[in-house]
Design goal:
88 residues, mainly alpha
């Protein structure tokens, strides 16, 4: 079975990931990031978010949230890859 092509896999994993993230306080979220995301990637996400926000004239609030959204997508992708590794 190819997990990445199975919509049910993505939905179930996304729901579980969202539930976990909602339970984290900001310090726990920061710890999750520091344990799983290399500094170079953090720097990339911040620079990418800054460039995107400027290019698309995002509001200040949207600009502030964009790096976190990018990181959440990155973490979800890491989780998908780790689940598949464990399954094989």
């Amino acid at each position: 079975m190819t997990y990445f092509k199975d919509p049910a896999f993505h939905t179930e994993l996304n729901d579980a990931f969202t539930d976990i993230l909602q339970e984290l306080d900001p310090g726990e979220f920061d710890q999750l990031i520091s344990n799983n995301v290399p500094y170079q990637d953090l720097d990339f996400f911040q620079k990418h978010a800054d460039a995107f926000a400027k290019r698309h004239r995002l509001s200040h609030n949207a600009h502030q949230e964009l790096p976190r959204l990018l990181l959440m997508g990155y973490l979800l992708r890491l989780l998908e890859e780790r689940v598949v590794e464990v399954e094989h």
